[in-house]
Amino acid sequence: MPVKGQVLSSYFQRLAGQNEYVLDMNYLLLLFLLFCTAIFLYDYLFRRVPNRLLVMAIAVQLGWLAGSGNGLNGVTWIGAFSGLTVGLLFFLPLYTLRAMAAGDVKFFAVLGLLLGPGALLPVFLIGSLFAGVHAVATHILRMGLVPGLQAVATRLVRWPLCRRVLERRGSRSGIPYAAYLAVAGAWAGMQSAGVILGIN
């Protein structure tokens, strides 16, 4: 084969390999977004973070790391485990002070494993902002400061679907912090993948 043909063949092989890597990363990002959506729905509706979802996310990330050396958005082994460690160390004191639920701590640590340590601060800040808005809205609703809002909430609670959700939730209450971390995590994952713009 002439030199020119070898160069072109080598170029197209590299291009095909890059496209395959991009497709793999897109599939992994899609799985991550589905994971964040499931966590959001579970925590927002039922105030629960299912362990099986966390274990599945860990297994997929570790499998990807073992197979290719890189996980979601190119996170390496070192990035994944340092993210997990930072996530645990950051939230564990809050859990011991009963300022954070166990599910929130575990989910934040798993986000560290998936996204790496660099994503945790923005995820924490954005998730906390959403949780703060939720807390203010809940306070306004409980105090009856906006009568129209109270009437809407009363109507919603009468819906059969809403009643079923509240029955399944049981005595669990509080701010669905993991749900808001999931929204922030989805944003961080898409921003890191270049799907959406970040905050500069």
From TrEMBL:
Record flagged with keyword Disulfide bond: no
GO cellular component: a single term: membrane
Keyword Transmembrane helix listed: yes
Domain Prepilin type IV endopeptidase peptidase per the UniProt entry, residue ranges: 30-135
Keywords of the record: Membrane, Transmembrane, Transmembrane helix
InterPro entries registered for this protein in UniProt: Prepilin_IV_endopep_pep
Family matches, as Gene3D superfamilies: 1.20.120.1220
Transmembrane segments: 27-46, 53-69, 75-95, 107-133, 139-157, 177-199
Any matching Pfam family: Peptidase_A24
Superkingdom assignment: Bacteria
Name this polypeptide is given: Type IV leader peptidase family protein
